[in-house]
Every structure is written in structure tokens, then in C-alpha cells.
Amino acid sequence: MENRPASPMIVPAYWAEARLQSRAGKRRVTVRRFGWSDEGQAAAEAHAQARAQAALDRILAGETLPRRERRSNYGVHGVPIREQIVARHPDGAIVTRNSYGARCLNSPDVLFADIDFAPRRFGPPTAVVAIAMALGLAAGVWFQHWIWPLGTAVVVLPLAIWLGERARRRHMHEGGAEARALQRVEAFSTAHPDWHLRVYRSPGGLRAMALHRTFDPLDAEVAACFQALGTDPLYAMLCKAQRCFRARLTAKPWRAGVRRRIRPPVAAWSPEQANRPDRLAWIDRYERAASRFAACRFLRALGDTTRIDPVADRIRALHDEETGALTARPLA
Q1: Which terminus of the chain has a lower count of CB atoms within 10 Å, N or C?
Q2: Residue 114 CA to chain centroid, in angstroms?
Q3: How many CB atoms lie within 10 A of CB 168?
Q4: Which residues touch 320 (CB under 8 Å, ≥6 apart)?
Q5: Which of 323, 300, 310 is closest to 246 using CA atoms?
Q6: CB 31, CB 46: distance < 8 Å
Q7: Rounded Cα gap, residues 105 and 325, in angstroms
Q8: What is the mean pLDDT of residues 94-116?
Q9: What is the pTM of this model?
């Protein structure tokens, strides 16, 4: 399949927030909306005013809308992520600093997929224990004898603990969460032998990168790939909203021993915020601490490793260098 131009990536350089007020009968209605632009601050402010006015008009017309834009794990719902642009690279890649201070790679067309390990709990099956104990208690009340709940506890609790331990041992025998995630990636590779995938281990999961060609983040093929690999749904949503793929390049601060949070405790979206002395001092401490760790580690290449798109390969080189993926540094 030929490479197609990707949709324009949305990583704005300029941001603003507009606040409008009006009255609806006896109620005062206040609406805030963000605006953004790559052209300049004035364009961002005009965009914010237009979005705020449109929202206010719809609310006054009787529509139910949030007065302020809601935050999600990846930023504000329905709004591009507000992050400081740290560097621009050839092939359209942009490095930003996220809300907790780590640097992130944003690529308009080189596919990355985050695959979080599914949490597994192996304690006693709570529902089974609760039902059994409730039955024992009911029997005790019915027969007016304490031996029923006590007997149920003596029998059920050891059985539940044994079942939980058995499930844990089976899970570990099968290789644990990493092996299960790798099996999904390998199954996808087997079904798509013409793809060239690079697989990395991150602190909490896997990262897959496609090297054989570039992709539009809005492609149905990308959505199918994400679903087959078990990609984090929030990450998949972000890729569509931003029109880009994303990979964290540096350690999470708390994993690198940096406990104090960056200030402001949201991603900087103005030069004044980005250049605060306390923020710059934090970044200096963080970057020195993060340099001792790797954000991910290369595991293996799958599929047709002879197919290498030159754009994807340049992004691969940038990614591997910045993350420390080919080093022995500990993951963070």
C-alpha cells in the first residue's frame, strides 16, 4: 500500500482562553473556552472568543453544555493537549513537555501503539466468599446456631485462597502480563506478515512501532491495529484528536526520584508560564535525574524487517536515542 499524506497534526504553538458572560432570565451564565493557533497569539485569542461565543449562544438557546471544558487523563476533553513545544524536527515531528514534565514525541504519520498490561488480581474471589458467608449467616439465623457461619468460613476461605494462588501460578507459568501482551502483538504480526513492527518494553506495558510505512492517524487500518493490539483506549482517542501518534521520550518524574511536582502543575501553554524561574529550575533537576533512566527498552523486530520507510526510520532513530531504548539503563 502506498503512503498517503497524513491529516494535519494538531499541536498548537499559541493558546488563549476567553470568558464570556450573559443573562438567561435571572441566571448569570459564564462560559469559558480555549482557543489555539499556529499563526500567532492574536489568532489564538480570536479562536477562543469565537468558540466561547458559539458555546454561549447554544446554552442561551437551551442546549446543555459544560460551562468550562472538562479535563481528562490526556488533557481537556475535545481540546488539543496544551503543551510547551520543546523542539521541532524534520518530517514534521514535534517534541513537547507534558503536564508532569516529561518530554513526548508527536509524529503526524509514524505509528506508535501503547499497550498497557492488564491488571491481574489473584486474591480470594471476593464474590464467592461474600455469597458463601451470606448463606452461612442466613443458615445460622434460620437454625439459630453460630456454627453455620463459622463452619462456612472454615471451609470457604481456605478454598478461595487456594483458588487464587492456583490462578496466580498459572498466570506466571504462562509468562505473566508481558507474555500475554507479546502474544497479541505476535498474533497481529502473523496476520499481517507485510508489516515491520518494532516492539519495546515500557515500565507498565509494551510499545509497538510500525517501520514499513507511514499512516494517517484517522485511517480505519490504524483503528483496527489498535484494537487488535489492545491499545490503551485513551491513547487511541488522543491520536484521533491530535491527528498524530505519540511516545513518551523521558522518565516519569516520580519514577526517577523527583517527588516535587512541576510548576505550574499543568502543561505550560504560554511563554510566561514556560519561562518561570522555578519551572526552569525544576526542569534542570528533572532532566539530570531522567538521564539515568530509559523510557522504554527495545525487545524485538517482527514481520518483514526488510521493509523500512525512510521517514519512519528517521523517527525510529530519534525515538531510540531520546528514550535510551538501546541502553541498559533501568526503566522509569
Answers
A1: N
A2: 7
A3: 15
A4: 298, 326
A5: 323
A6: no
A7: 14
A8: 95
A9: 0.78
